[in-house]
């Protein structure tokens, strides 16, 4: 791990590291982000491993300008209006994914929407332009810790997991970006943050409510983003196959099966399995699987988040 001062060489090295699949921490005007190439599922999985998150939340994807955002998400009128007014800046807009959106399913937790942000910090801007790929980045702290506003905070929390920390001094806002869902006619606030709700309302020319439907109360963090819900019925910790089941396998020793089988990681690598999880669930649905036998997955490292997700997916509503 290296902490690098803000020079052109440092930005070039950080961009190369990102493109090579490594994690890079970088300053934004809100907080420091733990960045990965958003199109590389393995790199995105490494973010969750580094943060020690017990579950997979959809992450924010950073791009250098509104044009780059429009290539990944569909700009509604409200999105164009708010993007034009507040980007670059501490605002994240949740949009419907473009059909050819290259963002990895793990970064969006398998959703059909993507959260996009154009940060204003000059070092973040330089990195995004040099990397020439969308960069997904949650705050660069371990799960449960406070968000970092200096390179030293990042080093203390995540030093071992990142290739490079770009040092841009203290993040000026110190509070995460405000997240607004602009997928529908009426935009709603999903998370309060560095851009005040009044400013957004003023730009829209009308009040903006919280997603909870209650005008003055944000929904609980767990309600902020839904996850992809598979249609197929999942049977967990399956050792053998039953009639008509598809198989979601893990590791080298796979039960005998006749039909559709997807192996999350033939070598038994939990980072690889996490990277493949949401795409695999979608693939099983797309293939029309009704019932799926899911092999046991160890509950260590990213296995905890994988099992959390599978348990939710297995619950019959
Ligand atoms: O200031 C920030 O926003 C920092 C800096 C590094 O940019 N980033 C950050 O990222 O806080 P992250 O990934 O931790 O923020 C995720 C937030 C959560 O509230 C999540 O629920 C919401 O964005 N979110 C992400 N994708 C979403 C989606 N597709 N639909 C709804 N909410 C989404
Ligand atoms: Mg955070």
Give me some keywords for this one.
DHBP synthase, 317 residues, single chain, binds magnesium ion, 11-stranded mixed sheet, Rossmann fold, 2 domains, alpha/beta, binds threonylcarbamoyladenylate, 4-stranded parallel sheet, 30% helix
Task: Summarize the structure in words.
It is a single chain. The model has no long low-confidence stretch (mean pLDDT 93). The protein has two domains: 2-210, DHBP synthase (Alpha-Beta Complex), CATH 3.90.870.10; 233-314, 3-Layer(aba) Sandwich (Rossmann fold), CATH 3.40.50.11030. Helix 1 crosses helix 5 (122-131) and helix 2 (41-51) crosses helix 8. The relative contact order is 0.17. The protein has helices at residues 8-19, 41-51, 66-72, 77-86, 122-131, 151-158, 197-204, 270-286, 303-314; strands at residues 2-5, 24-27, 32-37, 60-62, 91-96, 113-117, 135-136, 164-167, 178-181, 188-191, 209-210, 233-235, 245-249, 261-263, 291-294. The protein has an eleven-stranded mixed sheet with strand order 1-8-2-3-7-4-6-5-9-10-11, with helices on both faces. It has a four-stranded parallel sheet with strand order 12-15-13-14. It has 317 residues and is α/β, with parallel strands linked by helices. The structure holds threonylcarbamoyladenylate and magnesium ion. Magnesium ion (MG) binds at residues 138-139, 147.
């Amino acid at each position: 791990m290296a902490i690098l001062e803000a020079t052109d060489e440092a930005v070039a090295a950080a961009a190369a590291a990102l493109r090579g699949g490594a994690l890079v921490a970088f300053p934004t005007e809100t907080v420091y982000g733990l960045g990965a190439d958003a199109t590389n599922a393995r790199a995105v999985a490494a973010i969750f491993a580094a943060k020690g998150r017990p579950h997979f939340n959809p992450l924010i994807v950073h791009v250098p300008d509104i044009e780059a955002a429009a290539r990944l998400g569909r700009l509604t009128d409200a999105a164009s209006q708010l993007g034009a007014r507040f980007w670059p800046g501490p605002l994240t807009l949740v949009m419907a994914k473009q059909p050819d959106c290259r963002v990895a399913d793990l970064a969006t937790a398998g959703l059909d929407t993507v959260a996009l942000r154009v940060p204003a910090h000059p070092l973040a801007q330089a990195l995004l332009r040099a990397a020439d790929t969308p960069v997904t980045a949650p705050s660069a702290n371990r799960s449960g810790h406070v968000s970092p506003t200096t390179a030293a905070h990042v080093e203390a929390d995540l030093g071992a997991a990142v290739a490079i920390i770009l040092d841009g001094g203290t993040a000026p806002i110190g509070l995460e970006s405000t997240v607004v869902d602009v997928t529908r006619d009426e935009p709603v606030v999903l998370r309060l943050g560095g851009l005040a709700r009044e400013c957004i309302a003023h730009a829209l020319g009308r009040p903006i409510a919280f997603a909870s439907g209650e005008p003055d109360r944000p929904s609980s963090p767990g309600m902020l983003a839904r996850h992809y819900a598979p249609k197929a019925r999942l049977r967990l910790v399956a050792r053998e196959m039953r009639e008509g089941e598809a198989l979601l396998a893990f590791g080298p020793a796979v039960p005998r099966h006749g039909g559709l089988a997807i192996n999350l990681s033939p070598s038994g690598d939990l980072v690889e399995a996490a990277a493949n999880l949401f795409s695999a669930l979608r693939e099983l649905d797309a293939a029309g699987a009704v019932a799926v036998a899911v092999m046991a997955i160890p509950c260590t490292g990213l296995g905890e988040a994988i099992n959390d997700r599978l348990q939710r997916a297995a619950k019959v509503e």
